[in-house]
Amino acid sequence: MSCPLNRYLLLMAQEHLEFRLPEIKSLLSLFGGQFISSQETYGKSPFWILSIPSEDIARNLMKRTVCAKSIFELWGHGKSPEELYSSLKNYPVEKMVPFLHSDSTYKIKIHTFNKTLTQEEKVKRIDALEFLPFEGKVNLKKPQHIFSVLEDYGLDPNCIPENPHNIYFGRWIADGQRELIESYSVKKRHFIGNTSMDAGLSFIMANHGKVKENDIVFDPFVGTGGLLIASAHFGAYVYGTDIDYNTVHGLGKASRKNQKWRGPDENIRANLRQYGLEKYYLDVLVSDASKPSWRKGTYFDAIITDPPYGIRESTRKTGSQKEIPKGMEKCPESHVPVSLSYHLSDMFFDLLNFAAETLVLGGRLVYWLPVYTPEYTEEMVPWHPCLRLISNCEQKLSSHTSRRLITMEKVKKFELQNIP
Amino acid sequence: MKLLTHNLLSSHVRGVGSRGFPLRLQATEVRINPVEFNPDFVARMIPKVEWAALLEAADTVPKGPIEGYEHDEKFLRQMHHVLLEVDVLEGTLQCPESGRLFPISRGIPNMLLSDEETET
C-alpha cells in the first residue's frame, strides 16, 4: 500500500498550544497544501505527523511558522525500538537511497524529550540503526544530511517512564522561525506602549491571517505598530490607524519604566526602520475605527488587530460636545471630545462590518476578543454573513478572564443588505 | 502621507456619502522619499487606483493604466514614484462636499470628526 503523499513529522514548541494547529493549517493553505492529518488528534503533544504534497511546501511552511521547531521527512516510527526498526524496514528503499549514497555525508542525532540519556546510551541507539543502507561518510561538523531519532517520554517531568511512548526516525529538513521571537522581542524595541503584543503572538497572528508578500495589511487599532511589524517582516505593506493622536505621532509619556517622555526615535515608522522594514510602511492616520475614512472598495488583504477592550487600555470613540462630563479628555490637535465608553459589542460589530466591506475576497480578519470566562459561550463570538469563522483560540489572562484570537475569512461579497 | 493613501481616503462627514471622495489635497510641505522599487507590489496596486482622483492630486501621472502594464518597467517606476515616494508632510485634505478640512501634520492625516459631524 503506497501513499501518494509523503509523511512528515513536525516537532512543535510547547507554547500557545491552542494556536498551533490553526497556524499550521493557515500556512499550509497559503502554500497550496491542505492539512491532511495522519494521526487522531493534535492536542498537547509536540509530535505531529502529517501528510504534505511536497518538500517545497514543507520548506515554505517552516519559513513562516513560529509554532513549529523543526520538520523531518518521516521514515519510520513505533512505540518501541522493535516497532521502529520494522517500520524503517518497510520504508521504500528507493526513497532512502538519494540521501545515503556513497558520495554523501551525514550524521545521526538522538533527541529525547523529557529524559536525559548518557552519551553511551545515545551511541547504542545509533549503532542499532546499522541495518539502514547508509553508504556515505559520517561528518559531524557539516554533514549534507542530518537524520534524527526522536524519543518521546511524555509530558510529565515528575513521571518519566523507563521506555519511551513513541520513537520517530526522520531526515531533518528545516527549522521554523522561533528565533524571530527573540530578535523581535518587545524588550529591544524602540517604541512600545502599555499593551504592545508579545512578539511570538504577533507572528502567530500574521500567520493566522495568511499574510503574504505584497499584501496590504491594516490595523485599525494600531497603537505602537507591533502587529504591523510581523506582517512587514513577511513582506506585506502596512497601514495603521489609531484614535490616540500622541501614540500615532510618537509623543507623550513613555511606557518604559525609567523613561519619562518618548524620544524622537519612537514612532511606528521608526519601529519598522529598526528592523530594516521601513519600505513596507505605507501610512498611519489618526482616526476613529468606528467612523472609518476609507472609500468604498476592497483593498485590504488582511486586517490584523488587537482592539482596546477596557482591561488595560480604555476603549474610546469620538463623542459629542453635548456629553462632555467632568474630566473628559480632548484630543490636543483636533479639539474633538473623546468619550470614554464604547460598548464592546458595537465595536466588534463595526469591526466585522468594516472587514466585510474592505477585505478582498479570501482576505482574513484576525482580532482578539475579550472574554469573561464563567459566562463564555460560543454564541458570543461575533458573526457576519460575509465572514466565515476559521479559528478561535483561547489565551488565559487571569482566573476569570481570557482573550480569544478569532480568525475569519471573507467568503462572500459585501452588499448593503448583508448588514445583520 | 503618500498619494496611494490619498487615493483610498474619503470624507465621512454626515450626509456626504460617496460625494466625500476624493478629498481635495492642498500640500504646503512635500518631501520626496526614496522607497525601494518593487514592481510586483506596484502592479498589484494599479487595479485598485481611482485614476481620476490620482490625476487631481498629482502633477506628472500617466493618464491611465496602459496595456500590458504589469511588464512595463518604465510605467511601473513612474507609478511607484507617484504613489509611494511623494510624501505630503504638511497640508490639508478637504471634503469636496462639506468643505470640512482634515489637517496633515508630520506626514500624518488627522481624520477625526465629532459625533455631530459624522454619519449615523
From TrEMBL, chain A:
<keyword id="KW-0489">Methyltransferase</keyword>
<dbReference type="GO" id="GO:0160102">
    <property type="term" value="F:tRNA (guanine(10)-N2)-methyltransferase activity"/>
</dbReference>
<feature type="domain" description="Ribosomal RNA large subunit methyltransferase K/L-like methyltransferase">
    <location>
        <begin position="188"/>
        <end position="318"/>
    </location>
</feature>
<keyword id="KW-0007">Acetylation</keyword>
<dbReference type="GO" id="GO:0005737">
    <property type="term" value="C:cytoplasm"/>
</dbReference>
<comment type="function">
    <text>Catalytic subunit of the TRMT11-TRM112 methyltransferase complex, that specifically mediates the S-adenosyl-L-methionine-dependent N(2)-methylation of guanosine nucleotide at position 10 (m2G10) in tRNAs. This is one of the major tRNA (guanine-N(2))-methyltransferases.</text>
</comment>
<keyword id="KW-0949">S-adenosyl-L-methionine</keyword>
<dbReference type="GO" id="GO:0032259">
    <property type="term" value="P:methylation"/>
</dbReference>
<dbReference type="InterPro" id="IPR016691">
    <property type="entry name" value="TRMT11"/>
</dbReference>
<comment type="similarity">
    <text>Belongs to the class I-like SAM-binding methyltransferase superfamily. TRM11 methyltransferase family.</text>
</comment>
<dbReference type="Pfam" id="PF25904">
    <property type="entry name" value="Tmrp11_N"/>
</dbReference>
<keyword id="KW-0820">tRNA-binding</keyword>
<dbReference type="InterPro" id="IPR002052">
    <property type="entry name" value="DNA_methylase_N6_adenine_CS"/>
</dbReference>
<dbReference type="GO" id="GO:0000049">
    <property type="term" value="F:tRNA binding"/>
</dbReference>
<feature type="domain" description="tRNA (guanine(10)-N(2))-methyltransferase TRMT11 N-terminal">
    <location>
        <begin position="7"/>
        <end position="178"/>
    </location>
</feature>
<comment type="subunit">
    <text>Part of the heterodimeric TRMT11-TRM112 methyltransferase complex; this complex forms an active tRNA methyltransferase, where TRMT112 acts as an activator of the catalytic subunit TRMT11.</text>
</comment>
<dbReference type="InterPro" id="IPR059073">
    <property type="entry name" value="TRMT11_N"/>
</dbReference>
<keyword id="KW-0819">tRNA processing</keyword>
<keyword id="KW-0808">Transferase</keyword>
<keyword id="KW-0694">RNA-binding</keyword>
<protein>
    <recommendedName>
        <fullName>tRNA (guanine(10)-N(2))-methyltransferase TRMT11</fullName>
        <ecNumber>2.1.1.214</ecNumber>
    </recommendedName>
</protein>
<dbReference type="GO" id="GO:0008033">
    <property type="term" value="P:tRNA processing"/>
</dbReference>
TrEMBL record, chain B:
<comment type="similarity">
    <text>Belongs to the TRM112 family.</text>
</comment>
<dbReference type="InterPro" id="IPR039127">
    <property type="entry name" value="Trm112"/>
</dbReference>
<dbReference type="GO" id="GO:0005654">
    <property type="term" value="C:nucleoplasm"/>
</dbReference>
<dbReference type="InterPro" id="IPR005651">
    <property type="entry name" value="Trm112-like"/>
</dbReference>
<dbReference type="Pfam" id="PF03966">
    <property type="entry name" value="Trm112p"/>
</dbReference>
<dbReference type="GO" id="GO:0046982">
    <property type="term" value="F:protein heterodimerization activity"/>
</dbReference>
<dbReference type="GO" id="GO:0048471">
    <property type="term" value="C:perinuclear region of cytoplasm"/>
</dbReference>
<keyword id="KW-0963">Cytoplasm</keyword>
<protein>
    <recommendedName>
        <fullName>Multifunctional methyltransferase subunit TRM112-like protein</fullName>
    </recommendedName>
</protein>
<dbReference type="GO" id="GO:0030488">
    <property type="term" value="P:tRNA methylation"/>
</dbReference>
<keyword id="KW-0539">Nucleus</keyword>
<dbReference type="GO" id="GO:0070476">
    <property type="term" value="P:rRNA (guanine-N7)-methylation"/>
</dbReference>
